[in-house]
Write a structure and sequence with these properties.
The protein has 533 residues and is of the alpha/beta class. The protein has 4 domains: 64 residues, no CATH class; 155 residues, no CATH class; 230 residues, Glycosidases (TIM Barrel, Alpha-Beta Barrel), CATH 3.20.20; 56 residues, Chitinase A, domain 3 (Roll). It is built from 16 helices and 16 strands. It has an 8-stranded parallel barrel, surrounded by 5 helices. Strands 12-11-15-14-13 form a 5-stranded antiparallel beta sheet, covered by helices on one side. The two termini are 35 Å apart.
Length: 533
């Protein structure tokens, strides 16, 4: 079985201003998966998804044979099936085992009945064969392809068998062959110069490949919307408008300093209508991009007071509606980015405010940006998703410098998505926020300082041949290490490779799309990756 890491899975307990913030999410480093190991990305990807864990000795044990029950667990976890209400039968020799709920789910769907012998035994600890893996996966895939299933099993499978011409095809169980060859057809498994080797066992590293390929097949079939935040210094990205479906113009903010009144600010601070805005609007219109006005505010304490100030809210909403109707902009909706609500008592007030905004703007769209809910409790995610058209999850500010925790490790991003889904946000409304940023640790004479270097400086450092660049696990971020004299530097960076992984994650969870904070920070290589989504 896949056992939990004890004392090696990193759990961050972050203390700030008297509060303890916990990310109870394993971020595991496997001591026996070398940097050059061919299975490294597969193993760490499944670990980041929470599908696999490891052993108490902090190893993955790549070369160990995989048991039947372990593979069944992997497949059920991959399918994201609820194991709490399964009604399938569990063979007597599996009842009471850790794997029983997973076996019940698989049994309910008729994926594994062929493994049960005449005595009614599954033999869950028995090493699983390649034939059994392929048959189980084939049944799973054909369940999801109901229109082609009967046609395939009634005869089309034999064409695949003949085309593959495995030297040992005759050794594949005739009853399982249609399912085995469907798995081969979908490129989840393949043969080698020895044939398909149906009776050989499957080791743990090979299982990681099988599950990754299975996830990839389903992920590549998904389509994503892309929202670009055109804010701060985004003018270099004006030509990228055709690559996004929606653009949120970061041109306004809430001004609230006096009880009873508030203002939609558009001419001061960072979030203001820029000079030359007409060119941006024209570019978006030519690309037929949906345009929303982004409204920003990040003072949680003042925001809490504002949400109890009905006259101030009325004044603000009135100005917002006026701006949305301004033909000079042609906004199709509004994107609210109101940050900093940590107290659960604020959640009903913010929800009511969002409902009032939705009523006031009528048919125009409403996007609400929210943080992951680890310690920001002032956001009723389910209620907000019932009101808004889109929920933008800002899953990228996990940074904790004392713990060397960078901004957006993939395991934490995945957990943030799952938490939002569990709270009732439909995947069809959830957008995964991706922020192009870097975190730097600088060590001089044993003293550590931190920085948030600009993207242009990090890109120049990437070109430095003396800097070490690695694909950092388990974070799935680029790690740049170099020295300036006696000063050691480490930079974790959201590069093109890590952005691609987050796009993939959004597809794995069938989310509505991704958002880019902010458009001006993304490089040409990033945009090439985004265009291929």
């Amino acid at each position: 079985m896949y056992k939990k890491i004890i004392g090696f899975a990193v759990v961050f307990l972050l203390a700030t201003a008297g509060n303890t913030y916990a990310y109870d999410v394993p971020m595991v480093t496997y001591k026996d998966v070398a940097d050059q190991a061919w299975e490294k990305d597969y193993v760490y990807t499944l670990s980041a998804l929470g599908i696999i864990e490891g052993y108490p000795d902090s190893g993955y044990h790549s070369e160990e044979a995989l048991s039947r029950e372990t593979f069944i667990k992997l497949l059920v976890a991959t399918a994201k099936l609820d194991i709490s209400h399964a009604s399938g039968s569990v063979p007597a020799d599996a009842a009471g085992r850790w794997s029983a709920p997973y076996i019940a789910v698989a049994s309910e769907r008729h994926w594994i009945e062929f493994m049960v012998n005449e005595a009614g035994e599954l033999k869950p600890e028995q090493p699983i064969t390649r034939e059994e893996v392929a048959a189980t996966v084939g049944k799973y895939l054909l369940d999801k392809a109901e229109m082609t299933g009967s046609q395939w099993t009634s005869g089309d499978w034999s064409k695949e068998r003949d085309e593959r011409a495995f030297t040992d095809s005759s050794k594949i169980n005739a009853n399982l062959a249609p399912y085995v060859f469907y798995t081969v057809n979908r490129t989840v498994m393949e043969g080698d110069n020895q044939g398909f080797r149906p009776k050989s066992g499957l080791i743990r590293s090979e299982a990681a490949v099988v599950i990754n390929r299975l996830i990839d097949i389903e992920a590549t079939e998904k389509e994503l919307e892309v929202t670009g935040f055109y804010a701060i210094k985004s003018s270099p990205a004006i030509g990228r408008m055709p690559l996004v479906d929606n653009v949120a113009m970061g041109w306004s903010h809430l001004e609230y300093d006096t009880a009873g009144t508030a203002k939609l600010g558009t001419d001061t601070t960072t979030y203001k209508v820029p000079d030359g805005y007409a060119d941006v609007v024209e570019s978006a219109d030519q690309a037929r991009v949906h345009k929303e006005l982004m409204v920003f505010y990040n003072d949680g304490k003042k925001l809490s007071v504002f949400l109890q100030d009905a006259p101030a809210q009325e004044a603000f909403i009135g100005q917002l509606v006026t701006k949305l109707r301004d033909p000079a902009f042609g906004f199709s909706g509004v994107s609210l980015d109101f940050e900093g609500l940590m107290d659960a008592s604020d959640a009903p007030n913010y929800l009511q405010f969002v409902r009032d905004v939705k009523v006031a703007i009528g048919s125009k769209t409403l996007t609400v940006s929210v943080p992951p809910d680890y310690y920001y409790k002032g956001y009723d995610l389910k209620g907000l998703s019932e009101t808004a058209d889109t929920i933008n999850l800002m899953a990228y500010d996990f940074t904790h410098y004392d713990s060397n925790l960078p901004s957006a490790p993939l395991p934490l991003v995945r957990d943030g998505v799952e938490r939002a889904l569990r709270q009732g946000v439909p995947a069809s409304k959830l957008v995964l926020g991706i922020s192009k940023q870097a975190n730097q640790w600088i060590t001089t004479n044993g003293k550590v300082t931190t920085a948030g270097p600009g993207i242009d400086l990090v890109e120049k450092r990437l070109e430095d041949p003396t800097a070490a660049k690695t694909w950092s696990m388990p974070y799935f971020l680029k790690l740049i290490q170099y020295k300036d004299g006696s000063t050691a530097n480490e930079i974790y960076y959201e590069d093109t490779q890590s952005i691609a992984k987050k796009i993939w994650l959004a597809k794995v969870y069938s989310l509505k799309g991704i958002s880019l904070w902010h458009m001006g920070n993304f490089t040409a290589a990033d945009w090439d990756t985004i265009a291929k989504r």
